[in-house]
Amino acid sequence: MNKQLDSIDRRALLSSAEDLVHGDFRHELKHITVPTLFITGGKDTIVPVEDTKEFASLTKGSNIEVVKDAPHLLVITHYQEVARRIERFLNIEGIIKY
Predict the structure, then answer these.
(1) The pTM is what?
(2) Angle CA(21)–CA(43)–CA(23) in degrees, nearest 5?
(3) Residue 14, Cα to own-chain centre: how many angstroms?
(4) What is the pLDDT of residue 25?
(5) Would 74 disulfide with which of 13, 32, 41, 87, CB 3.0-4.6 Å?
């Protein structure tokens, strides 16, 4: 793992992080043409639920799931719930049948 970290272009990583923090990609959402699921934490203070709802409204045919008590890193703290909701979405959309 340390070898992988040593090989990272730190300038590119910082630039990408800055884009994530300061960039506004909402205008790109209209170009998404595949079924899309937004999952957000109800207690996310980094990307609040209202922001995620806006992103979903700009993405044609998207779905939004709010995990009530989850923070921003819900894929770590609520991974089982996130996986369950992704699985359900994939089933509903007919992408994968479980």
Answers:
(1) 0.76
(2) 15
(3) 20
(4) 86
(5) 41
Per-run averaged pLDDT (10 residues), the chain, 98 residues: 68 76 86 96 96 96 96 96 96 80
Q: What is the residue type of 83?
A: A
Report yes or no: 28 and 55 within 8 Å, Cβ to Cβ: no
Joined together, the tokens standing for residue 92 give: 């509903």
Residue 17 is predicted with a pLDDT of: 74
Q: Report how far Cα 76 is from the mean position of its chain's Cα atoms.
A: 13
Specify the DSSP element, H or E, that contains 63. Answer: strand 63-67
C-alpha–C-alpha distance, residues 67 and 91, integer Å:
19
Which two structure tokens, joined as six digits, stand for 6? 């040593």
Which residues fall within 8 angstroms of residue 59, CB to CB, at 6 or more apart? 29, 30, 32, 36, 38
Check: CB of residue 59 under 8 Å from CB of residue 32. yes
- The span from the CA of 39 to the CA of 42, in Å, is 10
Q: What is the DSSP letter of 30?
A: G
Q: What is the pLDDT of residue 49?
A: 97
